[in-house]
Amino acid sequence: METTVNDLKAKAARVNPDHKEGKVATAIEEQTSKIPSDVFLWAAFGSMGISLTLKLMKKDKNALFVGQWAAPFLLLGLYNKLVKLEGHDQHS
To answer: pTM for this one?
Structure first.
C-alpha cells in the first residue's frame, strides 16, 4: 500500500494537533534563552583559536577535534537566537 504525502500530513496532525512543544523542549528553551547570544559566538572563535594553537604545536588530531567545535557552537547560537525571537508555542 502506497502512503501519500497527504496521508503522512494527516497522521502528523493527529499526533500533535495543537502543534505545541513537549515538556523537554520547553524546559530547554527556557534555560537556553537565558544565555547571551555572544557566548556562542565567542565559544566558536575560541575553539578556532585553540585549534590554531594546537596546529602550531603540531598536535594535528587535537587541533582538528577542537576546530570542529566551531560549527556546533554557531548552530547552538542560531537556536538560541530563534528561541529568543520566537519562543516556544509563540503562535498560540
So the answer is: 0.68
d(CA 34, CA 31): 6
Give me the sign of the Cα torsion angle 66, 67, 70, 71: negative
Cα–Cα distance between 69 and 56 in angstroms, integer? 18
pLDDT at residue 92, as a whole number:
47
Number of domains comprising the chain: 1
Half-sphere exposure of 52 (CA within 13 A, CB side): 6
Q: Which domain holds residue 55?
A: 5-86
Helix axis angle for 60-67 and 37-56, nearest 10°, is: 170
Note whether residue 63 is domain-resident: yes
